[in-house]
Design a protein that fits this description.
Radius of gyration of chain A: 18 Å
Mean pLDDT of chain A: 92
Number of strands of chain B: 0
Helix content of chain B: over 70%
Mean pLDDT of chain B: 91
Distance between the termini of chain A: 46 Å
Largest sheet of chain B: none
Strand content of chain B: under 5%
Oligomer: heterodimer
Shape of chain A: globular
Structural class of chain A: alpha/beta
Shape of chain B: flat
CATH class of chain B: Mainly Alpha
Low-confidence stretches of chain B: none
CATH superfamily of chain B: MetI-like
Number of strands of chain A: 12
Number of helices of chain A: 9
Order of helices and strands of chain B: HHHHHHHHH
Low-confidence stretches of chain A: none
Strand order of the largest sheet of chain A: 8-9-10-3-11-12
Number of helices of chain B: 9
Helix content of chain A: 25-40%
């Protein structure tokens, strides 16, 4: 039997007014795989990620999580209808999202940020949620910060808390939207190393990044986006060693010292 | 016996009774204004069909003089709606309505200041729009607008002196009564002004201390 991909994206399109940001993107991500998305600013990487968990509603196309379409549901009679917003809200929790700007909630402690959704969305008891929260914070090496407020942490620490917050929902996959782009170089490494550990433990990940080192060493596959389409994709050795597309070559040359 | 002793100290029971009425009216009006302001703000922002109505009410409450509103609520509403049936109620209602208009706009500014990403972070972990509002947007908004809310309370306190006109026995009315008995306005009115200054100062200081405490606690302001 062929394994159902963890995430399948089919002919995804997104326009803002007359601007076509995504122009038909299709790919599969298999369980335990790490896919890095690279490309210039404005190539549609972030929009693609936001369409996958439906923070943006795609103009056309579909995203399947473990074979389940995000935007539609198939009734008992085989008819498919638009999925109600309430259900989409629920399905989002299967996809952990990490943002460029961390987006921690400033009025909650670190632990409070992590256990909010397990309590409110999963209906866990406070006690169970605390245990889970401590475990997730340990995974990002921040156990000692659990009672701090986010504003007192460094950017790298805040981003690791954001990762723990996403992990606490036990997502089927994690989406990273330029997770290190607003960090100083010395703080970037601590976040990347946590991401590598996650990948090592078999987490399915899509990572939008400008960190070519991470894309080369930590991903199973790299996609180069250009103008809302996948211009080239393949294993990192191919993309970084011998890219076929001229645009990809040009893009990558800017990253070589 | 000095005038201060005769006109203020010996009349302190009357004045304190008035002050308590002032405090009571202001607290009720304030609570009403917060709830009313929040409702007006939410309707304006999120209930599209009722939006024009909310805007009209907010602008009406903000743009009419408090004195006119007081008269209107005290003398027109009972004719129109059969309520309020006491001047005390009319007093806090008029004060509360006006402040609800101002607070609605304050809340709106606060809600709009919450970064979109904080909401999206809530949605991305599966929270519903209501949960996102109650657990993330509202607390962050209150944190931002707390100083303005406290300021609005001081506005209520100062405007409340007008309810003496519709015979609510607040501090101002009690002071005026004493003036009319003794025909000695200097000490009585000076003492009354001092009482208002003290009240407003204490409220501002307490509100500022509370807001600062929370901002420091969350690490949002330098200690």
């Amino acid at each position: 039997m062929v394994e159902v991909p963890a995430i399948r994206v089919v002919e995804l399109r997104k326009s803002f007014g007359t601007l076509d940001v995504l122009r038909g993107v299709s790919f599969d991500v298999h369980r335990g795989n790490v896919v890095s998305m690279i490309g210039a600013s404005g190539s549609g990487k972030s929009t693609l990620l936001r369409c996958i968990n439906r923070l943006e509603t795609p103009s056309a196309g579909e995203v399947y999580i473990d074979g389940e379409p995000m935007g539609a549901r198939v009734g008992a009679n085989g008819q498919s209808s638009a999925r109600p917003l309430v259900e989409i809200n629920r399905m989002r929790r299967d996809l952990g999202m990490v943002f460029q700007q961390f987006n921690l909630w400033p009025h909650m402690t670190v632990l409070g940020n992590v256990i909010e959704a397990p309590i409110r969305v999963r209906g866990m008891s406070r006690k169970d949620a605390r245990a889970l929260g401590e475990e997730c914070l340990a995974q990002v090496h921040l156990s000692e910060k659990s009672s701090e407020y986010p504003a007192r942490l460094s950017g790298g620490q805040q981003q690791r808390v954001a990762i723990a917050r996403a992990l606490a929902m036990r997502p089927k996959a994690m989406l990273f939207d330029e997770p290190t782009s607003s960090l100083d170089p010395e703080l970037t490494d601590e976040v990347l190393s946590v991401m590598r550990e996650l990948a090592g433990r078999g987490m399915t990940m899509i990572v939008v990044t400008h960190e070519m080192g991470f894309a080369r060493d930590a991903s199973d596959r790299v996609m180069f986006l250009h103008n809302g389409q996948i211009e080239e994709e393949g294993p990192p050795e191919q993309i970084f060693g011998a890219p076929r597309s001229e645009r990809c070559r040009q893009f990558l040359s800017k990253y070589r010292q | 016996m000095s005038n201060w002793e005769r006109l203020v100290w010996n009349q302190r029971e009357i004045l304190i009774k008035g002050l308590l009425v002032t405090i009571e009216v202001c607290l009720i009006a304030f609570a009403f204004a917060i709830v009313g302001g929040l409702i007006l703000c939410l309707v304006r922002m999120y209930v599209r069909p009722l939006r024009p109505l909310a805007i009209a009410l907010i602008e009406f409450f903000r743009a009419t003089p408090i004195f006119v509103q007081l008269m209107w609520v005290a003398y027109v509403w009972p004719e129109l709606f059969g309520w309020p049936n006491t001047f005390f109620t009319a007093g806090w209602l008029a004060l509360g309505l006006q402040s609800s208009g101002y607070l609605a706009e304050t809340f709106r500014a606060g809600i709009e200041a919450v970064p979109a990403g904080h909401r999206e972070a809530g949605y991305s972990v599966g929270m519903s729009p209501f949960q996102v509002f109650r657990r993330i947007v509202l607390p962050e908004t209150l944190l931002t607008v707390a100083p303005s809310i406290v300021n609005q309370f001081t506005v209520i306190v100062k405007s409340s002196t007008l309810i003496s006109v519709i015979t609510v026995p607040d501090l101002m009315l009690q002071a005026l009564k004493l003036v009319h008995v003794w025909f000695e306005p200097i000490e009585i009115l000076t003492a009354t002004a001092a009482a208002y200054i003290l009240f407003v100062f204490l409220v501002s200081a307490a509100g500022k201390a509370l807001a600062d405490f929370h901002r420091r606690r969350f690490g949002l302001a330098a200690a």
